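MOLECULE: protein
FOLLOWS: sequence and fold
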Amino acid sequence: MKKRWYLLLIAAGLLLCAVPLQFPQHLPKPVSALLAAGGSVLVGGSLGSLLCQVIRIRDPVLVQAYKGQHDERNTMICEKAAARAARVMQGAVLYFGAAYARFLELPMWITWGLVGFCLAWGLLEWGLTLWYRHRM
């Protein structure tokens, strides 16, 4: 992400933290606690990410490691592993979902919903494969 987005997230987090402090009587305690916690997470996460980005830019060893991690070969390996894992999980969801629906005597719409989900996933994968082949 660009530095501008982190700064916007920090500003949003500070605003979320300021609301419970500005209106303590008007907000219930759980709401003010959630606002303060959400603002703290936004501020802390954004500041940490900005700090890591600054450190990575200034350290040549980390810059080289970042380039090595995000080169084409490594990116292709990660994407291939993610696609294979998705296929395995797709089959597991379909198989175990159908088995549970059969053994627990669940309604058939659950089984057909799982089949439809896996079919839509497969069609999306096929369509994206064709699209990427065309673009390359």
Summary: The mean pLDDT is 81. The radius of gyration is 23 Å. The CA atoms of residues 72 and 78 lie 10 Å apart.
